């Protein structure tokens, strides 16, 4: 029987010929929340884009499997259909495409024979209610003129509607005020408590630990220079809050000396 989980082993990746990931080992189990923390330039977003198949990021070694399926052998759209979701740090605007049509198209690609209009409408209004979002949101063009908080709330609406097996949230807290950050946390927690999302595994990529005040992480991983150098529980994020990343760098250097 194939092993469950999003399993990353020895992953190496480069951008423009420069190696950024230097052998990443990480397993995100169904229903778990993992936080990947690190300073700017440590390779966190490179990992996210490499997992989801961005063409500018070349995987040069290692393996990635999703519940036993070889992720790296799949095209980006097939990775999404297999159950891998990415919330972008900087979501793109799509003028002329309404939020409702955008999400319906994405949902239909996953459930082509099981999503008649009435069912879709019921589902999305249920999610809007959970997220405390106004229905007028649906008629707006995707991210066109959206504030930073609105863009992230739309990402969370997509997450709630698609209910992926594994969700990678790349710097979702970037640029958010406290209210918007709390809304993101509420969305993730609501999905985890729902029947369709209770087995979703999360990889939350962040520079700061503040989002972890709203979403409890089961495990925390610290990335420096393209490697995961330290693993721990939620208390590790508290250490970063009080000491910064320099103490981790010094600790790692001392261990290698």
Description of the structure:
- There is one protein chain.
- The protein has helices at residues 44-52, 76-82, 99-110, 117-131, 148-162, 178-193, 235-243, 246-256, and strands at 6-15, 18-28, 33-37, 57-66, 69-70, 84-87, 94-98, 141-142, 166-170, 201-206, 219-224, 227-232.
- It is α/β, with parallel strands linked by helices and 257 residues long.
- The chain has a domain at 6-91 and 165-256: P-loop containing nucleotide triphosphate hydrolases (Rossmann fold), CATH 3.40.50.
- The protein has a six-stranded mixed β-sheet, with helices on both faces.
- Helix 3 runs parallel beside helix 5, helix 4 packs across helix 5 and helix 5 packs parallel to helix 6 (178-193).
- The radius of gyration is 18 Å and the shape is globular.
- The chain starts with 5 loop residues before the first strand and ends with a helix.
- The mean pLDDT is 90.
How are the SSEs ordered, and which strands pair?
Layout: E1 6-15, E2 18-28, E3 33-37, H1 44-52, E4 57-66, E5 69-70, H2 76-82, E6 84-87, E7 94-98, H3 99-110, H4 117-131, E8 141-142, H5 148-162, E9 166-170, H6 178-193, E10 201-206, E11 219-224, E12 227-232, H7 235-243, H8 246-256
Parallel strand pairs: 3-10, 3-11, 6-9, 9-10
Antiparallel strand pairs: 1-2, 1-4, 4-5, 7-8, 11-12
Helix pairs in contact: 3-5, 4-5, 5-6
């Amino acid at each position: 029987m194939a092993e469950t989980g999003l399993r990353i082993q020895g992953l190496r990746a480069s951008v423009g010929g420069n190696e950024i990931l230097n052998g990443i080992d990480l397993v995100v189990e169904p229903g778990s929340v993992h936080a990947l923390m690190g300073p700017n330039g440590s390779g966190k977003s490179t990992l996210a884009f490499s997992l989801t198949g961005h063409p500018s990021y070349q995987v040069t070694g290692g393996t990635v499997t999703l519940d036993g399926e070889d992720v790296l052998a799949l095209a980006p759209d097939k990775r999404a259909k297999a159950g891998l979701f990415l919330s972008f740090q900087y979501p793109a605007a799509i003028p002329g495409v309404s939020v409702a049509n955008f999400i319906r198209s994405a949902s239909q690609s996953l459930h082509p024979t099981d999503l008649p209009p009435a069912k879709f409408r019921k589902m999305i209004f249920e999610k809007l209610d959970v997220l405390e979002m106004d229905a007028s949101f649906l008629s707006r063009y995707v991210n066109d003129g959206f504030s930073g908080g609105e863009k992230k709330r739309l990402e969370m609406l997509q997450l709630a509607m698609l209910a992926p097996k594994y969700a990678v949230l790349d710097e979702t807290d970037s640029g958010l005020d406290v209210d918007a950050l709390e809304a993101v946390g509420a969305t993730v927690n609501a999905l985890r408590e729902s029947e369709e999302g209770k087995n979703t595994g999360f990889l939350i990529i962040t520079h700061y630990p503040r989002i972890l005040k709203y979403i409890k992480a089961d495990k925390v991983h610290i990335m420096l220079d393209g490697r995961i150098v330290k693993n721990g529980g939620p208390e590790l994020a508290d250490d970063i809050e009080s000491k910064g990343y320099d103490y981790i760098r010094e600790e790692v250097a001392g261990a290698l000396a």
